[in-house]
Design a protein that fits this description.
Largest sheet: 4 strands, antiparallel
Radius of gyration: 29 Å
Bound molecules: 2-acetamido-2-deoxy-beta-D-glucopyranose
Number of strands: 12
Order of helices and strands: HEHEHEEEEEEEEEEHHHHHHHHHHH
Helix content: 40-55%
Shape: elongated
Strand content: 5-15%
Amino acid sequence: MLHFLLPLLFAANARAFYLPGAAPHNFLRGDQVPLFVNALTPMLSGSDDAKLKSLINYDYYNSKFNFCPPKGGPPQKQPESLGSILFGDRIFNSPYDIKMLENNGTCQTLCTQRDVTAADAKFINDRIREDYALNWLIDGLPAAEMKLDTRNGDLFFDMGFNLGNDDGPLSELPALNNHYEIVLRYHEPVPGNYRVVGVLVWPSSIGGPQDGTPTCEPDKNNPLLLREDQTHTIRYTYRVTWNVSDTPWATRWDNYLKIFDPRIHWFSLVNSLVIVVFLCVMVSMILLRSVSRDITRYNAIDLSEDVQEDWGWKLVHGEVFRTPSNPMILSVMVGNGAQLCSMVGVTLVFALLGFLSPSNRGSLATVMMICWTFFGGIGGYLSSRVYASLGGTQRKKNVFMTATILPTVIFSVIFLLNLFLLGAGSSGAVPFGTMLLIVLLWFGISAPLSAVGAYFGSKHGAIQHPVRVNQIPRQIPPAPKYLRPWAAALLSGILPFGAAFVELYFVLSSLFASRAYYAFGFLALTAGIVGLTTATVSILFTYFCLCAEEYRWHWRAFLTGGGSAFWLLAYGLFFWASRLSLHSMSSAILYLGYLFLLVMLDFLITGTIGFLASYWAVRRLYSAIRID
Ligand SMILES: *[C@@H]1O[C@H](CO)[C@@H](O)[C@H](O)[C@H]1NC(C)=O
Ligand SMILES: *[C@@H]1O[C@H](CO)[C@@H](O)[C@H](O)[C@H]1NC(C)=O
């Protein structure tokens, strides 16, 4: 069973990995093997209690790093997908001269950078202290350091390698790695054709005089230290070793996608399942027993006696479908939530089918963007139908707000964060062209689709309600404390959050610490469980509300559904305290900004699930009783 489930849950097995059409690249002996450089990212160092020290990416060719520029012209940007750009990839060509199977083990000089100023030396040292890593790509494979998993002794590839070293005696003045030992593993499927199946880099620091013939032999006692009060000369050297491998091309990613501790994912799953079982038992006890008892009693009394004595949720039958306050905002939120919800659902299906592995760079974000754009129709349709059902009349305003409010909010937040990134000299800022493309997707496709959806929504009209609304609103008796909106939201949020928080750790780590995430099977299961839990808990709370003769359930249902978002916010702050130690103001603002977006989207999605589930349940409930 485990052998069957593991590949499914991690979606990490071999062949399912590549988008149809992604073919292996065959090299002949002597063919140029291009090496591309990506932005420098802060890395979590190996130890368990390591903290991430920054969130800002830097361009490889940021002049302060003084890396060797390509020969003959300025660095050329490589084409990338939308998602890849959004997630911070900035890929350029490089001066490394690598030819298939040639120069095996030859020490080569890349270039010698003279006049590295004291200010640049300080900049480089600061980045080394923040554990920045270089990210190279050869034939689509990231350069990695080979590491040993101390738990089980397995070797695995950790993507990226250190800019420098500030451990132990080097904590005073860190050493810059200016020599790269590159081991390229190749596979020979047919004689004469070679494929790259592994890229390993061991960086090291070679001090001493930076002129003359290089030896490429690092001397542990003489690293390259950049004192921050003088100019320096840095010579960059590299040595390529070709090593034959029997890993076929199709499984070349397996070494990279190491599952650190599968037991944690299983623990998370069991944890979620326990919560679901607990909920199911509770719901079946409360809802099924008491509701069916209520219904028989309500209907029986009518038959046997002339005096009708109502109690509980039947009392408010003339109120439950009364228009809530701000039906416009509620319906816009539900519409946008439904759009996001469908986006997440379809993206997870794609991920499960294995299309979104790290080997297709940025595919996850690209698929999400495209789904969101095309599901504008769903948002418009639901928003306008819910709006009509809630008794709203300003249809045009509803369409307009559904199509514009959320994108505007997201866009403004990202724009503000961009300003901070630009101020910090980071490469992570979304380029102008990409911004334009997103605006185009939004105005050109998403907004019109939203309008089309709204047209069909208003054509189908309001949802019919089983009971009529009384003319005069009832008095609402004081409700118990736990049914107050915010208390209810926090209480009900615990269960969905509890079902997800272990998996959440991995998601946050991959979002912020650029760890690859590929346990999509677990993620999909967890998402399903969160959806189910959210729906059930909201229905329960709505039922309690109605029993307490509190009929203003619409907003409460949304709030109780979205309750887990408040816990997500708290968890995000906890993650900051425990896993990050951000030195710069911009990193902190960046983290808070992204966390805010994440929480907001989560609130919309889970709130919508809660609202729609409660709506369904209330309609079912009141269709079951007879009212004269
Ligand atoms: C390159 O050199 C290494 C060790 O020096 C050796 O193990 C490897 O087989 C060589 N590769 C080729 C293609 O000659
Ligand atoms: C090259 O391959 C051999 C055999 O697969 C292995 O023992 C050796 O460690 C490899 N060398 C490097 C530098 O990876």
